[in-house]
Design a protein that fits this description.
It is built from 8 helices and 30 strands. The protein is of the alpha/beta class and 354 residues long. The protein has 2 domains: 232 residues, Alpha-Beta Complex (Spore Coat Polysaccharide Biosynthesis Protein SpsA, Chain A); 95 residues, UDP N-Acetylglucosamine Acyltransferase, domain 1.
Amino acid sequence: MKGLVLSGGAGTRLRPITHTSAKQLVPVANKPVLFYGLEALREAGIEDVGIVVGDTRAEIEAAVGDGARFGLRVTYIPQEAPLGLAHAVLIAEDFLGDSPFVMYLGDNLLKEGVTRFVRRFDESRPDALILLQSVADPSAYGIAELDGAGRVARLVEKPSEPRSDLALVGVYLFTPAVFASVKTITPSARHELEITDAIQDMVDRGLRVEAHRVTGWWKDTGKLEDMLEANRLVLSTLTADLRGTLVDTTVEGPVQVGAGSVLTRCTVRGPAVVGADCRISDAYLGPYTSLSDGVVVEHAEIEHSIVLDRSRICHLGARMTDSLVGKDVVIAHSEAKPVAYRFMVGDASQIGIL
């Protein structure tokens, strides 16, 4: 079995972060989202993985390399534009050949991994196996409708009037039978080849499509709220690991501090993670906070937030929470007169002011 990981999307819902960074490389608990998927595939015994890449190809390749660090052999498959999940399958046919495969969306996180589903696929030998989970807003997802016997009856992409709350999780298992379907379907109203349409074609052709419900958590990290929630869920499994230097600092709960980091006169309440070579002083770090490498925090309070590499947060007048801060950002109180707000803000940014 092979793996197909999709990492070609534009990440418009995470702008401005994704103006300069691939959405699949935004870290959750200080690890890029993409890496969780690659590790899950390797844990399931898969070694050959194709990664579909788009405009951020160079960044993805720099981060993943040849895949050896994950125990994988990686092949990069360029996609001219984000033309749909089924289009990604179509252009990967030469790589996949006659092998069954797992398709894994590179911005998704699945707590239980994929090992159980790969094993089930090997045992049951369906033509396709889809994963489902109940969601609060079905109109935002591809939705599956099951018949009275639990068989897949109908799939609809982002229905305006959903008849089911079962969303397709971003992991699919297929045999090569799917190629005939992706070659048959036509672009949707949003000009994409939808994987839901391809799976529906497989159902219509009388092929066996199995559905399994995901019992653990699943997160599509395409939005800020989901990214923060994924960070919270992963940090909830954290174990303590203090490699940096703590001076007059109180640590409560599971906290990780990277090598070379120095925390002075701080209170840290876990679960929280501080990367390498950070400088934190006279600060409070609350639960579900992730600081990447080289971050500086002085006279500030932060919780339930993600701060990326080399950013500096100093002398804030209120606690920062529910935030995603990009790389090399400076957020600081200014003593300049007259008293006024002063910003340099990129496209599609959001700023909340009390």
